[in-house]
Amino acid sequence: MxxxxxxxxxxxxxxxxxxxxxxxxxxxxxxxxRGEVTAARVxxxxxxxxxFTADGANSPRVDAYSPARDSWRQVPxxxxxxxHAMSAGYRGRLYVxxxxxxxxxxxxxxxxxxxxxxxxxxxxxxxxxxxxxxVVRGRLYVxxxxxxxxSGGRALARTALxxxxxxxxxxxxxxxxxxxxLGVASLGGRVYAVGGRLAGADTNLRLLEVxxxxxxxxxxxxxxxxxxxxxxxxxxxxxxxxxxxxxxxVTIRTVYRxxxxxRRWSRLPNLPTPRHGLGVVALGGKVYVIGGGTTxxxxxxxxxxxxxxx
Length: 310
Fold this sequence. Notes:
By secondary structure, the protein is mainly beta. It has a single domain, classed as Kelch-type beta propeller (Neuraminidase). 4% of the residues lie in helices and 39% in strands. It has one helix at residues 2-12, and strands at residues 25-26, 38-42, 45-49, 62-66, 71-75, 86-90, 93-97, 110-114, 117-120, 132-136, 139-143, 146-148, 154-156, 159-164, 169-174, 183-187, 190-194, 208-211, 219-220, 232-236, 239-243, 255-259, 264-268, 279-283, 286-290, 304-308.
């Protein structure tokens, strides 16, 4: 056991300083501070959807950020308020799935946004909230999260839901290890599930799992160096970047990236403003970390910080 621990130190710790010379930049903040948002890249913009506001209510608000102009624009609201939803962009459209409604019910809803308006799409075959979403090869994957349990109670999802965008049809596949509040990202034709938790913030996990479309199951990779739930992730270059999260007492400031070629983790500079329930999106060689709560539990922020990934 001691030999294995020493091997882990030799292989991982020297690489944790990689990227340490990079610095986070502070950008124009989200116009309305929110936590438990979902965010996705659509073309040259980053869309931030829903979430809690400072009064504890969830919101239908959607804002789009242009990194080229370092400015925001408000777009039409989602048809209803939501938090802990899932989103992804594909070919100029924003897709938003599920989440919690204002009455705390879990949703099956699925919408797309383009050309200034929202369109209702076929509902998911099962309710989902606090999951993650990513698109690979024209299919949108909704991974992890909370769904209906026995007698309508709460359960962790054991299947991932897959939407064929061209055919407008849902199907399901085996999911990764069941968990919620995880990060989900796509890179190189695969879907990655990062961190997450079983229930409260004291059940955070270090899991990293990957799915190749057509495979029978998810495959485990080297675990995240630190446990994290309430987190998010993005694919940038050859890396999966993991940022944010919370424990029962603090928000998580450590940021890591996983090299999908070398299959190992390295450490990036800490978040200047640690947050959970945040949006993490890659665009133009940078990762943007937007919104989220600055303290454990219900909290909000308008902070928008970026880091060049090289």
